[in-house]
Every structure is written in structure tokens, then in C-alpha cells.
Design a protein that fits this description.
CATH superfamily of the largest domain: Glucose-6-phosphate isomerase like protein, domain 1
CATH class of the largest domain: Alpha Beta
Helix content: 40-55%
Number of strands: 10
Radius of gyration: 23 Å
Shape: globular
Number of helices: 15
Largest sheet: 5 strands, mixed
Number of domains: 2
Strand order of the largest sheet: 1-10-9-7-8
Distance between the termini: 51 Å
CATH architecture of the largest domain: 3-Layer(aba) Sandwich
Length: about 425
């Protein structure tokens, strides 16, 4: 198992009797999910996706990615929500915040906000670079990416003329929508988003695979990690960490713990949390139900919301996401004058110190009335990350069914759009 689950700080909050009491319900919803007979079953294409991706599909993506890298100083990924968060999560987990200082092509994201300052500064950065665009939108009319694409395509046309279309790549609906029509009309190389895979479950489709390959991610290993998770968790046994995570969070929810904080001790995992927040927030937040998915980056946030977690209203629980082994290690050395009083750390690595910070935090929060569990992955490799993301996807489907909602729609997302379009006087609103 690449993902392990530690439960010692559930003592007094979740018992084996609690788990046994929910076992029959869990087995029923598990069957409903894997047999594709439950709510939203027309959006379950992601479930078997890791084992359906072919060598030829990966080869085509890799060859296109190599072409994009060779011809581009900068590549912009345009998308919002599930059309960019999976890519951003894996990209940041592997490379971190310093990628553009260390590697080429430079990678930028657009279409996930409507900020004039953001897009204008991005345009300024791109001015003297050879650019490629990857635009991701099932409909092509989602406001934020559509605005960014219109602005950036204009710059591309001014720079390259009709040759701009050879530098634009589209990932969209197979048959319908404005981006599909544009792609057909202007000749972009394109990939299709499967009809039965929703955006937040799409990271193992070209939505995630093409941008990640452009970044130099080994997408074969990424997919292999998901395959391994699928195969190791193809069972309704409650000894499996994936199934136990799904059940435990629902037991805690029923006991009044309404907020789940996914907390990490590694800044490279920040966007894994952001991806997780969308996955669980859009999947479970319906019908007046659902855990609120929150995130924390420790130890940084221990100096901001740590006090609230320790002593505020006891409606939260934590899931710690821990990396067993870092890619590098830095050791503390002894200093003769010890002016900073840190000689007690001499000989220890930052990884040792960070691990003790996690152990101390999980114990402190438990004794303060916050139940917590820990999910551990061995490293930040493509295989581990593929396993982890599929782990969360399947756990989300099971958990949503236990909650009694359709985890695969998001009807509430449209409400703000209706008001915004009316205020903007969009035709039809």
C-alpha cells in the first residue's frame, strides 16, 4: 500500500463498534459505486479509467508534449476548477514553487480568475517569449477561461498570424460546445474529455496528462500509481485504508465534527489540498449536508489558525498528509556561541525536526479535543501522487454515497453565475 492510515488519535472518538455499525451500509454503497448503479452513475467513467488508458494514448500525448516543449519558451495552461487544479496539484507537488527559475519552458496558469492585474502582468511576461497555449474547457463558454483565451489568443495572432493556430491545443467535448467548434474551424490539435468523467475527476484524462507531460512529469508512472491504487483497493474490506478513510470521516460527521482540515507539513503539497477541497466540496456539499473541506499548511499555519484549532469550538477533525521521505536533506550544525539557542538541534535534519513538529501537533490537537488521522505517502514521486489522487477520488465516491448525496453533480455552482450574467446583461439572463 502506498498510502497508509494511522488512527491512534481517534481513541475515544471513533471505535471499532462504530465501524462495525456502519459496515452493512458501507458494503451496500460500495457495491452501488463499483457496479455503477447509484446516483450520478453516468459520471463514473473515472472509476475504471486507470486501467483503460492505452500505451498509444500516452505515446501521442508524450510526443505532442515534447513538440510543445521544444518550440516554446513559455506554455500557458488555461482552465478553472477541475480543468486546472489536478495539473496544478501534481505540478507543484513534484516541482514546487521554483520551477520557472530552474526549468524550461516556463509554465503559467490562466483562466482561473477574472483579475485584470493578473492577466495584464501575464501578458507583459509573455511579450518576448515563444508561446504555446493549452486551453481546457468542456463547453468553451465557462467565463473565466473563455475570457483568458480570448485575450491570449489575440496576442498569439498578433505575434504569429495564422501560424498561431499550430501553437494552440484544446481539450474539450468530443462533439459539442464552442471550443470544439473553434477547434474544428481553426484547426487546433485537440483531445476529448470523456462524457462520463466530470471535471474534478479528470486528472487522469488528457485534461491532466497533457499539461503534466509538458512539464516533464512521467505520466506513465503517474497512471501506474493510479492503476496500483485501483487494483489494491478493488475490495469492500474495511481493513483497507481507502475504505476506512471513507467510513471514519462519515462517522465523525455524524458525531458533530462538521469540518475536515487536510493538513500537510510540506509546502509542496499546498495544491494537493486545493484539489482535494474542490473534489470533496463540490461532491458532498448538497442538500444541507456535507463536511466542510478546509486546508492548512503546517507549520506555517500553526502560527495563524493553530490557536483556533487547539481551543475553539470542537466541530473539527484533521487528516494529516505526511511524506515519509523528502528528496533532499539539510542538517543542523553546532555553533560555538549558540546565540540562537539552536544547538540542541545539532545533528538533526530538517526532516527529523519537521516530523517531530507533526507528531507534537497531532498529539496536542488530540488532547485538545480534535480527533485526527494521518495518511502517509512514501515520497513525492509520480507513482505515489497518482496513487494518492485516485485514493481520494474513490474515497470521495464512497463517502458521498454514505452521506446520501449524488457526488458527481454540482447544481449549486450555477447559482452565482445566473446572478453574475444578469448583472452583466448577458443575453438570456
Amino acid at each position: 500500500m502506498i498510502v497508509s492510515l494511522e488512527e491512534k488519535y481517534l481513541k475515544g472518538f471513533v471505535t471499532e463498534e462504530d465501524i462495525n455499525n456502519i459496515k452493512d451500509e458501507f458494503k451496500r454503497v460500495y457495491r452501488s459505486l463499483v457496479e455503477k448503479k447509484g446516483l450520478g452513475n453516468d459520471f463514473l467513467g473515472w472509476l475504471n479509467l486507470p486501467n483503460k488508458i492505452t500505451y498509444d494514448e500516452l505515446k501521442e500525448i508524450e510526443e505532442t508534449a515534447a513538440k510543445i516543449r521544444e518550440s516554446s519558451d513559455a506554455v500557458v495552461f488555461i482552465g478553472i476548477g477541475g480543468s486546472y487544479l489536478g495539473t496544478k496539484a501534481v505540478f507543484e507537488a513534484i516541482y514546487g514553487p521554483f520551477y520557472n527559475e530552474l526549468k524550461k519552458p516556463k509554465i503559467y496558469f490562466a483562466g482561473h480568475n477574472i483579475s485584470s492585474d493578473y492577466i495584464s502582468e501575464l501578458v507583459s511576461i509573455l511579450k518576448d517569449k515563444d508561446i504555446s497555449l493549452i486551453v481546457i474547457s468542456k463547453s468553451g463558454t465557462t467565463t473565466e477561461p473563455a475570457i483568458a483565451f480570448r485575450i491570449l489568443k489575440k496576442i498569439m495572432l498578433e505575434k504569429y498570424g495564422d501560424n498561431a493556430y499550430e501553437r494552440i491545443y484544446a481539450i474539450t467535448d468530443e462533439k459539442k460546445g464552442s471550443l470544439r467548434s473553434l477547434s474544428n474551424l481553426e484547426g487546433y490539435k485537440s483531445w476529448s474529455i470523456p462524457d462520463d468523467v466530470g471535471g474534478r475527476f479528470s486528472v487522469f484524462t488528457p485534461v491532466g496528462l497533457l499539461p503534466l507531460a509538458v512539464c516533464g512529469v512521467n505520466i506513465r508512472e503517474f497512471v501506474n500509481g493510479a492503476k496500483l491504487c485501483f487494483n489494491e483497493n478493488d475490495s469492500d474490506s474495511l481493513s483497507l485504508p481507502l475504505n476506512r478513510y471513507s467510513v471514519i470521516r462519515n462517522i465523525l460527521y455524524r458525531k458533530g465534527f462538521k469540518i475536515e482540515i487536510l493538513a500537510n507539513f510540506e509546502p509542496y503539497l499546498h495544491y494537493i489540498t486545493e484539489w482535494w477541497k474542490q473534489l470533496y466540496g463540490e461532491s458532498e456539499g448538497k442538500k444541507g449536508k456535507g463536511l466542510f473541506p478546509a486546508g492548512a499548511d503546517f507549520t506555517t499555519d500553526l502560527h495563524s489558525i493553530g490557536q483556533w484549532i487547539q481551543q475553539a469550538e470542537r466541530t473539527i477533525f484533521e487528516t494529516f498528509l505526511i511524506i515519509e521521505k523528502s528528496k533532499t536533506d539539510v542538517f543542523m550544525e553546532n555553533e560555538e556561541n549558540n546565540g540562537d539557542e539552536l544547538n540542541y538541534l545539532a545533528g538533526l535534519s530538517l526532516n527529523d525536526i519537521n516530523r517531530k513538529a507533526w507528531e507534537g501537533t497531532s498529539l496536542a490537537h488530540f488532547t485538545g479535543g480534535v480527533p485526527n488521522i494521518t495518511l502517509t505517502i512514501p515520497d513525492r514521486s509520480e507513482k505515489s501522487l497518482g496513487y494518492l489522487l485516485y485514493f481520494f477520488e474513490k474515497a470521495c465516491g464512497i463517502s458521498g454515497y454514505i452521506l446520501g448525496v449524488n457526488p458527481f453533480d454540482q447544481p449549486g455552482v450555477e447559482e452565482y453565475k445566473k446572478n453574475m450574467f444578469k448583472l452583466l446583461k448577458k443575453p438570456g439572463y
